[in-house]
Fold:
Amino acid sequence: MIEEKISVRARGIKPSSTLAVNKKAAELAAAGEKVINLSVGEPDFDTPDHIKQACIKAINDGFTKYTDSSGIKPLRQAICEKFKMDNGLDYEPDQIVVSCGAKHSLFNVMIAICDEDDEIIIPAPYWVSYPEMVKLAGGKCIFCRFNSDYKIDIEHLKSIITKKTKALILNSPANPTGIVYTKEELEKIAEIACENNIIVISDEVYEKLVYDGKKHISIASLNDEIKKLTVVVNGVSKTYAMTGWRIGYLATEIPLAKAIANIQSQTTSNPTSFVQKAAMEAILADQAPVRKMVEEFEKRRNYIIKNISPFIRYCRPDGAFYLFLKIGQMTSTELAQKLLTEEKLATVPGDDFGAEGYIRISFACSMENIKEAISRLNRFAERIRK
Structure:
C-alpha cells in the first residue's frame, strides 16, 4: 500500500490546525449558522491597485520566463534600498534571496543550516510552522519558555544552549501574540547569540504593522557582529495585503545566501517572474496604503482592548493583527471547540503555538465582525465564570 511508503519525516508533520478550524466553520456556515471566522492570518484589505497594475503590465510585456534563482537583480536592489531606509541595514544584491513567500524563505534557511539533530531554539508562543519546518529539515526543536510579558525567558534561553545549538528563531512583531521586542531586549538576545556563535533567524514579516507610535527594530541593525549571524526574513504578504502572491525574501552573509540560492535552483527554480515586478512596485512606491491599513488595524485593536471582558486574560498586542487570550481553565482545544459550537466563533487553539490553554484570534476582519465577536467572547467568559 502506498501509505506504507510515506517517509517517517512526512508522517511526523502535523496538519494545520487553522485549516481544521476553517473546515468546521465552513460546515457550520453551510448549515445556516452565523459563524464569525477569527482564525484567518491575512489582511482583509485588497492588494493596492498600483501593485496589481504592475503585475498586469509585466504579463502584457511578456515578462513570463525564468529568472535568476535568487530573483531579478532590480528587485534585490530594491530590497537592499528598503533595508537601508527602514532598518538601517546595508546589504548587497548578492546577499538577498527572493523566494515564493516568507514561509518558503524560512524553510530554505532550515534546509541550508540543519544537519541531523542540530538544535534550533524556538521561543514560545511560536508560529505553528516553525517546529514543522525544523523537523522537515532534520533538525531538533528546543523550546524556550516565555516570561510574564510573553517574551523570551532570558535565563531559560541561556540554560538550553548546548554544543548542538545551531540557531534561534526570533519573531518580532510576533505571531500569535503581537509582542514587539525593545532595543534593550534585543541587545540581551544578541549578546547571547554572539557569545555562543548562534545564528538568529529573524522573522520580520509583520514589521510595518506596529501600533502606539512604536518602531520595529531589526536585531541585525544592532552591530556588525550580530548582523553577520542574522538571517533577516521578510516579505510582501502582510504589509501589502499580498498573501496569495507568494513573494518573500531574506538577507544574510554571501556564503549562506549562495547555499540557499542553490537549494532554490533545484526546487522552485525561481520565484514567479511577473509577481517579482509587482513586489518591486510594492516596495518602491508610495507607502500611503500601508499607513492606512495600519491605522485601521490599530482602531480595531483599540476597540478590542477597551471592550474585552476583565475575565479574559490576554497579551496586549503592539504589532501584527492577533490577540492571544485565555478564558477559564480549559485546554486550548476545549476552549476553541466550545467557542465554535456555543458562540459560533472560529479561533485557533494555542497548544499548537506552544501555549496550552490559550487561543488566537485575528482582528484582520471588519469592525462589524469584531464588535459582534467581542460581544460573544464576553458573553462566553461571563457564562464560564458563573
Q: What stands out?
A: The chain has two domains: 2-46+288-385, 49-284. The mean pLDDT is 95. The longest helix spans residues 288-307.
